[in-house]
């Protein structure tokens, strides 16, 4: 029994190392996960410097966008850094080969989650440092933001595995993920305030998980802003979506593209 546990740990560690090497080699994935969100933040920092604060919210454009850009960065890891590699591994037959080895599904999934969670911690830490330097985040905000970010990342990873589980083409998957990311964040009030959108958008936003992430982030960062929901409701909703996506992934995930 001890030998099996030891071998299982070695297998997971090997897969984690292989996962990191894969991401480092794929410059496109590395760019979307780390570099592009920082560039995005810099662009809005420049725009915000020439635009007055919002009279309705009493915060600058950069302050409003900061939670959204953080969510966008985490979403890049969950979608581009999770779904696309899964699609490519299945297309190249790697997933099929894995089923012929002693590797269990649990070991594979755990190793993939560990790699992405470590990457997300790097992302979150980077954004927390930038937020402090930009005077958006205070030291007392760091722990709550970190906790909400990690809970949100679990939900996003579940979504990434779900999408990566049924898409067959890397090119089509990349196009779909790229096309839906920004609109979803806008419709959830993360990138655009609800008061400038039709009322029906705000009503529909309750069905989008990122609505609750953005609401929780802004309640932590800006005490004077009244949240759309109680922050505990936000956290419960994020966890609920995570469970939903996980169950859907378990029911729909496939190791190969072959039809049985």
Automatic annotation (TrEMBL):
Transmembrane segments: 29-52, 64-87, 108-137, 143-164, 176-196, 231-253
Organism phylogeny: Bacteria, Bacillati, Bacillota, Bacilli, Bacillales
GO CC annotations, alphabetized: ATP-binding cassette (ABC) transporter complex
Organism encoding this protein: Geobacillus subterraneus
Domain ABC transmembrane type-2, chain residue ranges per copy: 28-256
A GO term, aspect molecular function: ABC-type transporter activity
Location within or outside the cell: Cell membrane; Membrane
Keywords attached to this entry: Cell membrane, Membrane, Transmembrane, Transmembrane helix, Transport
Membrane protein topology class: Multi-pass membrane protein
Major localisation: membrane
InterPro entries associated with the record: ABC-2_transporter, ABC2_TM, ABC2_TM_bact-type, ABC_2_transport
Family: Belongs to the ABC-2 integral membrane protein family.
Protein name, UniProt field: Transport permease protein
